[in-house]
């Protein structure tokens, strides 16, 4: 007879004997009946032989129109973080009734777990019943708005309900409870493993807490009723919370310690910090490299070149300065991770560093933010910097021939979905637009980088260019006026 999927999974991934697999198979044959009877999702998980994880070997779904699980999860690995009740069942041999768990598809369910045992009373599998949380909530007409269950919790802590796990048994944090003489009277599974690892002591119940964990001494002796301290122990980063427990007569009953292992979190923070340093160093190098290129161009200009090449050198310098301005603003941020650029400040910086043909030309650059503070990512900021540079440079070069004075207005407008950048001069006008490298750069950047639109507006005097691009996660507006400034 061809082996079933359940048998194949058990033989491949578990250490179960043939007799154990037979018991699991017999339980699995009843799952469809219970799934329909209880209107719940039924599973069997078995512990894997390679590691401490579990694997789903059988399942049955109720025949309902709304499905919690859209696909089969047989063969999927079960992690303790999402389903601690399964691992509690394996470790203690006790059932875990109606607690929360996260499904393989990310949905919250209420889960009950019962151990499956062989004839030797060994746990060989976990029988799981799950019901979607929202379904049970919809049946409740009113939800309490205050805390409740203090009496039930006291019963749990007093060990009068041994069949039910204490809530802390299902958590990854370490819970330790001492009596008034500072002897350990309770430790959840995470706490037991932690003490065994740190103290190398087999017998821990009713032992002095400071004998088991000497590093708690300065925390225990703190006068505060509630005290929190972060410390490093054996290359572990720990956050220790201490709460003194008192009765109604204000007599000390014991102390609760909650210890959270922050090692992984602190490691990731260090990695992010190193990443931030590296990114900032890259920004520095890009800016310095751009300044080096600009210096080489200036040196070439001083050495001499054909007069017809002068404008090309100046155009190139302005483009380099525009990109460099983006990185200067990023490096000015206090937060190394923040690469957002203020477009109004960027435009002012571009205008102040722009190289023009005639240094005696009297042209005023007027920037109007119109109540908006627009922040964008460095990627989009580079594109906008080049666009502003090209349009302002065109106005400076062509709108005011013969050294006549004039003004160039740069205005930022915003609506619900779009940002508009208007650049207008009061010069002689551009006439019929022909081909130029600058305008080609503008069109390509607007369409390809900003997913926007570029056009000219017909005016009686001067040139009026409008750039429109959509808001996105990379473009954020602060202090925006209620009405669009038109």
TrEMBL record:
<feature type="domain" description="Histidine kinase">
    <location>
        <begin position="281"/>
        <end position="473"/>
    </location>
</feature>
<dbReference type="InterPro" id="IPR003594">
    <property type="entry name" value="HATPase_dom"/>
</dbReference>
<dbReference type="InterPro" id="IPR036890">
    <property type="entry name" value="HATPase_C_sf"/>
</dbReference>
<dbReference type="GO" id="GO:0000160">
    <property type="term" value="P:phosphorelay signal transduction system"/>
</dbReference>
<protein>
    <recommendedName>
        <fullName>histidine kinase</fullName>
        <ecNumber>2.7.13.3</ecNumber>
    </recommendedName>
</protein>
<keyword id="KW-0902">Two-component regulatory system</keyword>
<dbReference type="InterPro" id="IPR022066">
    <property type="entry name" value="PdtaS_GAF"/>
</dbReference>
<dbReference type="InterPro" id="IPR038424">
    <property type="entry name" value="H_kinase_PdtaS_GAF_sf"/>
</dbReference>
<keyword id="KW-0418">Kinase</keyword>
<dbReference type="InterPro" id="IPR011495">
    <property type="entry name" value="Sig_transdc_His_kin_sub2_dim/P"/>
</dbReference>
<keyword id="KW-0597">Phosphoprotein</keyword>
<dbReference type="GO" id="GO:0004673">
    <property type="term" value="F:protein histidine kinase activity"/>
</dbReference>
<dbReference type="Pfam" id="PF02518">
    <property type="entry name" value="HATPase_c"/>
</dbReference>
<keyword id="KW-0808">Transferase</keyword>
<keyword id="KW-0547">Nucleotide-binding</keyword>
<dbReference type="GO" id="GO:0005524">
    <property type="term" value="F:ATP binding"/>
</dbReference>
<dbReference type="Pfam" id="PF12282">
    <property type="entry name" value="GAF_PdtaS"/>
</dbReference>
<dbReference type="InterPro" id="IPR005467">
    <property type="entry name" value="His_kinase_dom"/>
</dbReference>
<dbReference type="Pfam" id="PF07568">
    <property type="entry name" value="HisKA_2"/>
</dbReference>
<keyword id="KW-0067">ATP-binding</keyword>
